[in-house]
# Entry
Amino acid sequence: MKRRRGLEAAVVVATMALVAGRVLWQAAEARRVPCPQGYSENAGREERALVLLSRDPEGREAVRNASGVRGRMCFGRTEVPAVTVERTLILRRDAGDAETAARVAHLFLHLSGGFAPVDGFDAHAPCDAQVATALHAEADALDLELRLRQRLHVDAPVLRFEVQAAWDAATNGAAREQLLYDFLVAHPHGGGGVDGLADAYAQRCAEFARASR
Ligand SMILES: [Zn+2]
# Structure
C-alpha cells in the first residue's frame, strides 16, 4: 500500500512533466501554478518549515537561493515528496515540521542549482552523462536533507531511508555522498525511501532527444 502511494506520486510528477514539456514552461507565470488536485497549501506549515530553516546556516542558504525560483508548497497524500517541472513542491501532509523543513531544503536545491530533471535535458548531449550528473545532484540534495534531519532532531520520520544506517556510519562527507549516489544507481526503479529516479531521468532525457529529431 505504501509503495502504491509512492507510485501514484511519481505518476503525478511524470504527468505534469509531460504537460509542461509540451507547453514549454513559461517562466514567471507558470511558477505559481495551483496545487495539483488533492493537494493544498498550508500557510502555517510552510511558515514553520521556513522558520526552522532560517535557524540553520545551510537551511538559510537553501531558502535564499530558491527565492524567486520556487513554486507553491503543496501538501497531500504523497509518499515520497518531490518537485515538479512547474517548480511546485509536493510534500507529505503527515510529516512533522522538522522533517518537512529538511525535505524542503533538499527540493530547493533542485530549483536553484541547475537540475536537468526540472530545467530540461540537453537534447543533443549523451543521456548517460546527463543522468549521472542529475543523480549526483540528487545525492547532494539527499545528503543535505539528512544533515538537516540530524541537526533538526528528526528522530521518527514518516519517510525512512534504507541508507540511513550506512549514512550514519560513514566517516566523511565524500563517503556519504558516494553511498547515496550508489544507492540511487542500485535502485533505478525506486524503493528504500526514494522514487525510481535513475529510470525516470533516463526516460525523460530520451524524450527530450526524441522530441528534437
Ligand atoms: Zn531530490
